[in-house]
TrEMBL record, chains A, B, C, D, E, F:
Name of the top EC class for this enzyme: lyase
GO molecular function, one term: cyclic pyranopterin monophosphate synthase activity
Family annotation (Pfam families): MoaC (PF01967)
NCBIfam families (UniProt xref): moaC, PRK09364.1
Subunit record text: Homohexamer; trimer of dimers.
Gene: moaC
Protein residues bound to substrate: 75-77, 113-114
Protein name: Cyclic pyranopterin monophosphate synthase
Keywords for the protein's UniProt record, in alphabetical order: Lyase, Molybdenum cofactor biosynthesis
Length: 158, 158, 158, 158, 158, 158
C-alpha cells in the first residue's frame, strides 16, 4: 500500500492511464441490502402487488446504472460491458432485500465500479418505490464480493 | 400504510401524478458511511495527499449525481434543485468517512431521492479513488435523516 | 397554416421563444403498435415467460424516454413532467402489441413530443427484447391521439 | 424459435452475455416514414423554407440518437459505432418523408437497435418541427431492412 | 468584490442556494469566434458545400449544449430555458466565423453559463467538421456580451 | 485540401466511416486561457480560498466533459479514452489561468475533440465559479497543441 492511483504528485485528480495494461476478461460481483419494515417487504412480495413491477423496475434501473457508471464516477473509464446481471431476493426473516450484481467485459481496466453502482442504484430504486409507506428504510453493506481478471488477478471479500 | 404509490391497479409501474399537489419548499437530508482500513483513511487525510483532490472529487460527484437523479431512478420526477450540499468528514476513530447531504427546492414533490443519490455516488467515488489500495471498503447505512415540506410535513429518522 | 415555427426568417433552426405563453395544465396522449409473428406474441404473453419482465422493461424504458425527450429532440424545451403512463396491451387477434402513453404537466409549452417519444421507445424496447426470434417486427402508426391545454386548446385525432 | 434471450429462467431481464461472441463487422439498415398533409410537406421542401434546417436537424437528431441507443433501450450493450448515416427523402406523391439509416461497427453484437433508433428519432424530430401546422402526422413502418455480420449472418426484410 | 459564491467557509464547493431569490425574466447573450484559414472558410460558405449542413450542425449542437449545461458545469442549477438562439456569421475579411447566442428564461438564477456553453460547443462543432483540412483553427474570445434580470440587473460587456 | 469529410456529395452531414482505419495509439494535447481581473485570480490562488475547490472542480469538469464529447459534438465517434489529464496553472503576471489537457486512447479515430472539449469545459467551469465577482472574464485561444497517431501522424501547432 503506497499511494492513491487517481492523484498525481501534486494531489490533482486525473483519469489513470491504462494504455499499457493488457486486455483480459474482467468480472466483478457486488452486493447491497435494503432493510425495511416487515409490512413494506410484504407489500412487495405478497398479496396485492405480488406480480407488480417493483423488482423489475429496480433490476432495469441497476442494469442501466451500470452503463452510466462513467458519467457518475468522475475518474472511471468508459467501458463496453458484455454482460450485466442484477438479482433481487427477498429475505423476509431479516426483513430486507438482497441485491447482488455481476458485470463482465474484456478490457484494460476492471468493472468493480459498474457492479457496485448497479447494486446501489437498484437499492435506491427500491427505496423510491416504497418511500411513501416507509421512509426509514436503510441501504446497507454495499460492497465488492469478488473480482477476476487484470494484473491483480482474483480477489474475494473475506 | 396501504398500497405502493408507484404501481397502478394491475401492478404496472408509472410516474405518480403530482399535478394536484401544492408547491412548497422541500428539504431533505441524507447520510452514508464508507468504512475502510486505517491506512487508507490516513492516505486521504494526512501526509502525502493531504491537499489532494479526493474529497473535492467525491463532493462534485455527489452534487452532479443529485442533478442526475431522474435519469437514474426510473420513476423520479425531474426537479429544479435550488441548493445541494455534500459534506465529507473523516472519522479516524471509526476508520470511516461520513457523508451527509442536503437538497432543497420549491416543488410539488420531495427531494429525498436526490439527497440519497448524492450520498451514494459520493461514497462510490471515494471507493473508486481508493480501490487500488483497499478493495474491502464497505458503504454502510445510506439513509434519509430528515425531510421537510409537502403534505406529510416534517419527518425525522429515529 | 403559414410558416414553420422552429425556423427563423433565414431558415435557421432555433428553440421557439415561449416566454410569453401562459402556464396551463397540458396533457398529451399518443399511441404506437408493434406487429410481430403470432409465436413471438405468444412468447411474451403466455407459457414460459408469462410472468417475465418484457412489458415491465418496455414500460420503464418508455417512462424514462419521456424524461429524456429534450436530449433527443433538438428543439424541444426541457419540461417538468408531473405524470407519465405507458400501457402495453397484447392484441393477439392482430398479432401485435398496442402501446398507449399519457404525459402531463403545468407549463408554457405542450407535451406531445414526450408522449410520442415514450411510445416510440417502448416499442423499440419490445423490438430489442424479441429481435433474436423475430427480426421482421414492424413498429406502426406512432401518432398523437389527443392533447389538451395551451393556446390551441383541445385537439383530437380523427 | 424457442425462448426470449433477454430473460433468465425466472423471467427476469438481464443484459445478454456476449463475451464469447466473435468480433465481426456488423451493418444494419432501417427505415421509417412520416406521413403528413401535402401543404406541410411543401413547407419543408419548397418555397420559403426551402433552404431551411428541417432535414438537417432531423439528420443530426438521428445520428445523435444512434449514439444514445444504450441509454434508451435498457438491455442494449454500449457500442462504438464506426459509421452512421441518416437520409431523408421527400415523397410528394405519397405526401410523406422516407427516412433510411445505416449503422456500422466491429463488435460482438449487432447494430439493429441503433439503426432503428436513429430512424425513429429523426421521424420524431420532423414531427416536432412541423407539429404547429400539422398535429395529425403519423410515423409509419419503422422496420429493419437488412443486417449483416454476426453468427446469424445476412438477414433481409421480405 | 469579496468572496467566491460557490465555496463555503472551508473552501468546499457547493451548489449555491437560490431558494430565496426572486423569479424574474433572465436573458444572456454571449459570443465566440473561430479563426481558420481562408480556404477553410471558403469551403464552408462557397462552392461545393455551399448548401451543406456545416452551420446547421453547429447551430443544433449549440442549442442542445445549452440544455446540457447543468450536466457539464458541476455547480450550475438545472433550468427550464424558454428560448435559445445560436447565430453563425462568416466574416471572410477576418477569416473567421462569429457565433453569437441568446438564452432566456424565467427563473431564480441567470442563464449566462447556458449562453456561453452554447457558443463554445457550436465553435467546437465547427472545429470538428473542418479539422480534417485545418487543424490550426483557434477558438477565440468566448465571452458574455450582456445579461438582464436578477438582483444585479443589466450588465453589458465594455 | 479538398473537401469537408463530414458532408456527403449532397452536403448532408454524416458520421464519417472509420471502419477501415487502423487502430493506433492516439494522443492529443490542447490548451485554453481564461483572462480575469487580478483580484479575481487572487481570490482563487491566495488568501481565504487558497485551499478551496476551484481548480479541483474545473479539473473534474474537464475530465468528465472529455468523456461526454460524443454527446456534445454531433458527428464525433464514441471512444474509450485510456487517459485524461487536465492541468490548471495560474499566470498572475498575465492575469489569467492556463488550462492544458491531454487525452489518449487506442482507436481508429483521433482524440482532438476530446482534448479541446475538456479544455473548454474546464474554462467554462472557472467562469461559472467566479462570475459573481467578475462577469468580464474572457476565454481565449482554445486550440490543439499537438496530436499523434493515425494516418496523418504527428501534428504540432506552430
Amino acid at each position: 500500500m503506497s499511494t492513491l492511483t487517481h492523484l498525481d504528485d501534486t494531489g490533482a485528480a486525473y483519469m489513470v492511464d491504462v494504455s499499457d495494461k493488457t486486455v483480459t476478461t474482467r468480472v466483478a460481483r457486488a452486493e447491497a441490502y435494503i432493510t425495511m419494515q416487515a409490512e413494506t417487504l410484504s407489500m412487495i412480495t405478497e398479496g396485492r402487488h405480488k406480480k407488480g413491477d417493483v423488482f423489475a423496475t429496480a433490476r432495469i434501473a441497476g442494469i442501466m446504472a451500470a452503463k452510466k457508471c462513467p458519467e457518475l464516477i468522475p475518474l472511471c473509464h468508459t467501458l463496453l460491458l458484455t454482460s450485466v446481471k442484477v438479482n433481487l431476493t427477498a429475505e423476509p426473516d431479516k426483513s430486507r432485500v438482497r441485491i447482488d450484481t455481476m458485470c463482465k467485459l474484456d478490457a484494460k481496466t476492471g468493472v468493480e465500479m459498474e457492479a457496485l453502482t448497479a447494486a446501489s442504484v437498484a437499492a435506491l430504486t427500491l427505496y423510491d418505490m416504497c418511500k411513501a409507506v416507509d421512509k426509514g428504510m436503510v441501504i446497507e453493506s454495499i460492497r465488492l464480493l469478488e473480482k477476476e481478471g487484470g494484473r491483480t488477478g482474483h480477489w474475494k471479500a473475506e
